[in-house]
Write a structure and sequence with these properties.
The protein is mostly helical. It contains 18 helices and no strands. Helix 4 packs across helix 7, helix 5 packs across helix 16 and helix 9 runs antiparallel to helix 10. It is globular and about 65 Å long. The N terminus is likely disordered.
Length: 440
């Protein structure tokens, strides 16, 4: 009885009460930690994986140089689709910075974007490896085609392939241009206005004008990131000065005579293609008229038929379009000519990308630079879309090519068919249709 009373009068067991309190505290702590950890995961979900590594990026550009058809417009679209949207190796900002830098500097567009991406991700080694990986596969292909061309005295099947592939390439470019413009300009009315204006200007001029890229960048800079009257006036005058310098360089190059007339043909090749790489603005396709003027009219290295074959080689091989210079160089001076032509065209591209890239990278968070990049990129998407129209009028010349282009567009829009497969099928169609078209 006394024992029972003592037990009844004692307070509740400390271990039992303490365990319940600990469980309640532990449960509250776990709930709190769950709520705290959930928020960062929502806020800090990475848009792009950092530190993807130099070798995977090099491997990607090696593959793009091997299988990437469609010319500069399609290739820069593939880079955005693969590296930003699908693999998430790049941020949207890095891609736009690379594209803007490539558009402002002279030289072929796709190679510049590849080199710029390589630099922003891996410095000078990244730029070097990305550039070499992107260019080397198509260079080797073009050398092989050049050897066959010389051995067999011209290739009729090359024109047959280009007859159909050209229309398919237009469809590939159109899809790439649409996706690039939609992803870049989003719902921004100012950027879409620049896009429409540059599309019209490109169609009217039949070329991509670098002066308008700079002007578009300045417009967005002054509207969205006004730096004050003093800095704004200086930036405006600087932009006008750069645009005038670009115009003067292009005009001088068109009327300049050869500085290497008295030297050997290899020196002529190196100097001519270095000038082309250093002073021709826009996409790789913008270089074709300049090459025609120098190669056919000024130096007489090729006749008109051979030059058209050179353009066909550019369209039926993957990688950068300007790799056709290797074909021209090979026809003029063999393998040494092909190598020097390729070095001449791509070395200025490399220099003009790597030299200003540190400044771009260092100031990438600057609001004025961001605004300028947005405007220049919007202008680039408009120029690319205008190039689709310009090139389409040249590649689609009759009802068969129109049907091939529409069919290719429908297949690309509806199904996820790899571009190389579609290009190969179009080539087979061309081999069948070309004899019939010539007979008709």
């Amino acid at each position: 009885m006394g024992e029972s009373a003592r037990q009844a009068s004692q307070p509740p067991d400390q271990g039992t009460a303490g365990d319940g309190a600990v469980e309640r505290i532990r449960g509250d702590t776990m709930a709190l930690s769950r709520s705290e950890s959930a928020a960062p995961r929502l806020e800090e979900a990475p848009v792009a994986r950092s530190g993807v590594g130099l070798w995977p990026l090099t491997g990607y550009f090696l593959g793009l140089g091997t299988w990437g058809f469609g010319g500069p417009v399609a290739l820069v679209g593939f880079m955005h689709r693969d590296l930003v949207e699908r693999r998430r190796w790049l941020t949207e900002e890095t891609y736009k910075l690379s594209l803007a830098l490539a558009q402002i500097m002279p030289g072929p567009l796709a190679a510049q974007v590849a080199i710029a991406i390589g630099y922003f991700e891996g410095g000078v080694p990244g730029a070097t490896l990305a550039g070499l990986a992107f260019v080397l596969p198509s260079f080797l292909m073009v050398v092989a085609i050049s050897l066959a061309y010389i051995t067999y005295g011209g290739l009729w099947w090359m024109q047959a392939l280009f007859y159909a592939i050209g229309a398919t390439v237009i469809a590939i470019i159109a899809i790439a241009a649409y996706k690039l413009a939609r992803g870049t300009n989003k719902r921004d009315p100012l950027l879409w206005g620049i896009f429409v204006l540059l599309t019209a200007v490109t169609i009217w001029a039949q070329a991509e004008l670098a002066e308008f890229f700079i002007l578009a960048g300045l417009v967005v800079l002054l509207v969205r990131a006004w730096p004050g009257w003093t800095r704004g006036l200086l930036m405006g005058l600087g932009g006008i000065g750069v645009g005038a310098a670009i115009w003067w360089l292009e005009a001088w190059l068109r009327h300049a005579g050869s500085a290497a007339d008295s030297t050997g043909v290899l020196a002529q090749i190196l100097l001519f293609f270095t000038k082309a790489g250093a002073f021709v603005f826009g996409s790789g396709l913008a270089i074709v008229p300049f090459l025609q003027q120098g190669v056919v009219q000024q130096f007489g290295w090729l006749n008109e038929h051979q030059f058209l074959d050179a353009v066909a080689v550019a369209m039926i091989t993957p990688g950068p379009v300007v790799i056709t210079v290797a074909f021209i160089g090979f026809l003029v001076a063999g393998l040494a000519g092909a190598i020097l032509a390729a070095v001449g065209i791509f070395l200025p591209v490399y220099v003009f990308t790597v030299v200003p890239a540190p400044w771009f990278k260092r100031h990438r968070d600057n609001p004025q630079l961001k605004a300028f990049v947005d405007g220049a990129t919007a202008a680039a998407t408009g120029a690319i879309t205008g190039a689709v129209v310009v090139l389409g009028t040249r590649a689609i010349t009759d009802w068969p090519t129109a049907l091939i282009g529409l069919a290719s567009l429908g297949v690309l829009w509806r199904f996820k068919v790899p571009e190389p497969v579609l290009v190969a099928l179009s080539g087979l169609v061309g081999l069948v249709l070309w004899p019939l078209v010539r007979m008709g």
